[in-house]
Amino acid sequence: MRVFGIEEVKGLSKKADYERLIEEFGAKPITSDLVSRFKLDHKFIELKLVFAHRDFDHYLEFAGKGEVSIVSGRGPSNYMHLGHLIVFDFIRWLQEKTDAITYIPLSDDEKYVFGKVKKLKDGWFYAIDNALDILSLGFKPGKTYLFISTRMQKIYEYAITLSRYLTYNAVKATFGLNDSCNTGVIFYAAVQAAHILYPTLERNLPVLVPIAMDQDPYMRLTRDIAERIKVVKPASIYLKYIVGLTGEPMSASKPETCIFTSDTPDIIKRKVWNTLTGGRPTVKEQRKLGGEPDKCVVYQWLTVFFYNIKEAKEHRRKCLAGELLCGECKRILIEKLNKYLVTLRQKKKKMLDKVEKYFLHEVGDLIELYLARIENREHNC
Amino acid sequence: MRVFGIEEVKGLSKKADYERLIEEFGAKPITSDLVSRFKLDHKFIELKLVFAHRDFDHYLEFAGKGEVSIVSGRGPSNYMHLGHLIVFDFIRWLQEKTDAITYIPLSDDEKYVFGKVKKLKDGWFYAIDNALDILSLGFKPGKTYLFISTRMQKIYEYAITLSRYLTYNAVKATFGLNDSCNTGVIFYAAVQAAHILYPTLERNLPVLVPIAMDQDPYMRLTRDIAERIKVVKPASIYLKYIVGLTGEPMSASKPETCIFTSDTPDIIKRKVWNTLTGGRPTVKEQRKLGGEPDKCVVYQWLTVFFYNIKEAKEHRRKCLAGELLCGECKRILIEKLNKYLVTLRQKKKKMLDKVEKYFLHEVGDLIELYLARIENREHNC
Question: Does the pTM of the predicted model rise above 0.95?
Answer without folding.
Answer: no
